[in-house]
Amino acid sequence: MGKRRGYARDKFLELMRKNHLVIPPRRSRHTTNSNHLYFKYPNFAKKMNVSHINMLWVADITYIPLQGGDTCYLHLVTDYYSRAILGFVVSPTLEAKYSVQALEQAVEKAGGGNLCGTTHHSDRGVQYASDVYTTLLHDHHIRISMCEDYNPTDNGLAERVNGILKTEWIYPLPLLNDLQEAQERIAHIVDLYNNVRPHMSLKNRTPMSVYRDDPSIVPAARWYNLQA
User: Fold this and answer.
1) 54, 84, 92, 174: which could join 207 in a potential S-S bond, CB 3.0 to 4.6 Å?
2) Is residue 180 part of a domain?
3) pLDDT tens digits for 60-92?
């Protein structure tokens, strides 16, 4: 019997690189700029016991890589109780107006008007602290809550939603070509997330079925076969 041939770790990694089998790490990008003079609200969300829809919304922005090193940005507003994405916008920049558009979608889904029972939680980014954003929240009597430090767990659900969208439907596929393709793809992905993908935390119901109080259940194996 011949001897088994082994490689040390560094040699193994060198062989992997030579054969183009190593995926380069993705460079992190910061979407939060907390260095501003707008009022920073306290964190009300951390003490909340969320028991129904529209009690707590969480908002966040994440970047989406494009071909050629370009980037676009996904602005999200998610209902904490149901995990349903209520508003989303894919934008070319981090301007606050795009975050406002996502919030407007969420307000519309919730029926608009007086939403005094709703708390909106986010990081302390300039988009969420800006006058145009907080004015919209005040107009609908939505309480404003913000992370008090830079710990990602302070906005944990928003981070988890970002992770689901990216790791399950964005990163496994080839990079998107441009903003228009990203907008079309993300719209489809959000539909899959809201209406097709079951959540164990929701007893295998979909987020939108919980938000709409529809008891429909999607078999857990079904969504794995769907391609974005």
Assistant:
1) 84
2) yes
3) 999 999 999 999 999 999 999 999 999 999 999
Domain annotation covers residue 219: yes
- Could you tell me if residue 111 is left (phi over 0), alpha (psi between -120 and 50 degrees) or otherwise beta? left
First-to-last C-alpha distance (Å) of the chain: 49
Q: Where are the alpha helices (DSSP H) in 58-206?
A: 96-109, 126-129, 131-139, 156-165, 179-195
Q: Looking at the domain assignment, is residue 190 inside a domain?
A: yes
State the helix-helix crossing angle for 131-139 and 96-109, rounded to 10 degrees: 10
Residue found by looking up tokens 């107009």 in the block: 139
Euclidean distance between CA atoms 79 and 77, whole angstroms: 7
Two structure tokens written together for 74: 């996904």
CATH code for position 170: 3.30.420.10
Task: Output the CA–CA distances (angstroms, integers) from residue 79 to 6, 52, 106, 180, 212, in the order listed.
Answer: 51, 10, 9, 26, 12
Decide if 4 is inside a domain: no
Burial (CB count <10 Å: 0-12, 13-18, 19+), residue 26: exposed
Q: For residues 123 and 60, is the Cβ–Cβ distance under 8 A?
A: yes
Domain of residue 211, residue span: 45-225
**Cβ atoms of residues 107 and 115 within 8 Å:** yes
Count of the separate structural domains present in the chain:
1
